[in-house]
């Protein structure tokens, strides 16, 4: 992870061919190994601003916090159009003419599909107190993706990047002006990293009419991606295998729930299906790894590790790490640190963690900080939204305001229990904040972890039952709303 750049211009950027006009649409083809295009000013500045304002104010629009399909952290996405139907009606009214009159004719031609339609549209936000990144992934479910910037370039540093290979160093950023769109197919690895500031984007997914999908009902692999897998394309093989793996996990969860309800026969059938899917996922990952997918190599390493083949696991992780996969660097460093499957070598482990951190893996950066390397690794991890790093950095923040920002980011990035506990401590007394034991108690109750319960006991003596409930609302709702 490069330490925070001051400007998007200093990041490696996507190069484009000269402008061309296709069916009245201005495009610039990206110089990338996969089909991708810049569509300058797809929305006017006014339209982009209006879309963003409506998303923030329309009662039919809401930024959801349910788990994202890519990283399982809160999405902070606002549904605009779903399964062929408008959701945020006011936003759809602005987009309708742009989609039907300009985008659809263009995309049908560019992606050779006369039945292409808008399947889903959503707005994502990346605020300093919320999501900072969306890890590299494929939009396998869509024939074509169109991402429109709803922000001025000066509002943030970083943004959307295309990453042709699994090596994080191959990431190239698209500098988009407000209203500019970037358009790509199902086979382009891409992601978002916001180093600073706030970013809003509109994401539109197009599929043939017959494959229109509803939110989260994307567990089946669509034919265009399956065809790529059948041709032996490593990335597509990996995507198919990881879809099988997540279906296996979902089915196993359903089996557990069924067993809990006493439906033993149904549970058994689900367990069988989960085992079949897990086996198919394992075979798929092996095939994808053999075809050269570093993403799959990481998972094959996990499978080997879990089966007790530590040397096999270390070899897989090393190979994936050599190909620039940040989390594989960390997994391999762990082997070196513990002498698992390789000879123990702490100096080499540190070198691999540094490589992982510079490939964007926040946990590598945090591990380096924990191992006593420079404090800048703590700042690096916190900047990416690493929850524990945000909480640790909040302890030495220069102001209560900065500490609050970091703790809100930790809550949004999966660290609720520990962050709420730290918030409780902050409200017991911090420079610039009037101590508020009642607000502190509310946060401790929300946290529910052992430390927070001890703090509650210290505040009020034996903890009343209601305050032990981690879902109990804070005691002063009005005040909480101001902060949250
Ligand atoms: O926010 C963006 O620009 C892109 C988000 C994205 O890649 C996705 O939602 O799949
Ligand atoms: Fe995407």
TrEMBL record:
Domain (Fe2OG dioxygenase): residue spans on this chain: 117-208
High-level lineage: Eukaryota, Sar, Stramenopiles, Ochrophyta, Pelagophyceae
PANTHER family recorded: ERAD-ASSOCIATED E3 UBIQUITIN-PROTEIN LIGASE COMPONENT HRD3 (PTHR11102:SF160), SEL-1-LIKE PROTEIN (PTHR11102)
Protein family per UniProt: Belongs to the sel-1 family. Belongs to the iron/ascorbate-dependent oxidoreductase family.
The UniProt record lists the keyword Oxidoreductase: yes
SMART domains registered for this protein in UniProt: SEL1 (SM00671)
Record keyword Metal-binding present: yes
Record keywords: Iron, Metal-binding, Oxidoreductase
Gene3D superfamilies in UniProt: q2cbj1_9rhob like domain, Tetratricopeptide repeat domain
Protein name, per record: Fe2OG dioxygenase domain-containing protein
Molecular function in Gene Ontology: metal ion binding; oxidoreductase activity
């Amino acid at each position: 992870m490069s330490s925070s750049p001051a400007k998007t211009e200093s990041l490696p950027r996507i190069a484009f061919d000269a402008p061309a006009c296709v069916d009245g649409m201005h495009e610039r083809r990206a110089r990338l190994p996969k089909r991708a295009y810049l569509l300058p000013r797809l929305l006017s500045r006014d339209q982009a601003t209006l879309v963003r304002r409506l998303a923030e104010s329309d009662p039919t629009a809401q930024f959801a916090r349910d788990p994202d399909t890519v990283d399982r952290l809160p999405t902070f996405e606002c549904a605009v159009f779903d399964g062929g139907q408008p959701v945020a009606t006011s936003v759809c009214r602005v987009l309708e003419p742009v989609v039907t009159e300009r985008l659809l004719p263009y995309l049908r031609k560019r992606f050779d599909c006369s039945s292409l339609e808008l399947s889903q549209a959503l707005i994502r936000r990346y605020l300093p107190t919320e999501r900072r990144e969306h890890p590299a992934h494929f939009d396998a479910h869509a024939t074509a993706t169109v991402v429109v910037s709803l922000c001025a370039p000066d509002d943030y540093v970083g943004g959307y990047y295309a990453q042709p290979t699994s090596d994080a160093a191959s990431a190239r950023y698209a500098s988009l002006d407000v209203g500019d769109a970037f358009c790509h197919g199902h086979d382009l690895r891409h992601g978002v990293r916001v180093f600073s500031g706030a970013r809003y984007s509109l994401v539109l997914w197009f599929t043939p009419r017959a494959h229109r999908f509803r939110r989260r009902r994307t567990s089946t692999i669509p034919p265009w991606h399956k065809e790529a897998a059948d041709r032996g394309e490593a990335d597509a093989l990996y995507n198919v295998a990881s879809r099988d793996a997540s279906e296996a996990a979902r089915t196993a969860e359903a089996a557990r729930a069924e067993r809990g309800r006493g439906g033993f026969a149904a549970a058994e059938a689900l367990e069988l299906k989960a085992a079949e899917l897990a086996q198919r996922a394992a075979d798929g990952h092996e095939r994808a790894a053999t075809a050269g997918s570093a993403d799959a190599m990481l998972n094959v390493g996990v499978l080997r590790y879990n089966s007790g083949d530590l040397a096999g696991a270390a070899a897989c992780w090393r190979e994936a790490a050599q190909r620039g996969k940040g989390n594989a660097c960390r997994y391999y460093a762990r082997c070196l640190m513990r002498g698992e499957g390789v000879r123990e070598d702490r100096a080499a482990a540190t070198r691999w963690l540094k490589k992982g951190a510079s490939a964007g893996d926040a946990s590598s950066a945090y591990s380096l900080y924990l191992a006593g390397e420079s404090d800048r690794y703590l700042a690096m991890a916190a900047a990416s939204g690493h929850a524990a790093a945000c909480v640790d950095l909040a302890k030495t923040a220069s102001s209560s305001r900065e500490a609050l920002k970091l703790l809100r980011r930790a809550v949004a990035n999966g660290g609720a229990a520990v962050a709420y506990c730290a918030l409780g401590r902050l409200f017991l007394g911090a420079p610039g904040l009037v101590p508020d034991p009642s607000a502190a108690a509310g946060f401790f109750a929300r946290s529910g972890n052992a430390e927070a319960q001890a703090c509650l006991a210290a505040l009020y003596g034996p903890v009343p039952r209601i305050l032990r409930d981690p879902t109990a609302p804070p005691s002063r709702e009005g005040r909480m709303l101001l902060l949250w």
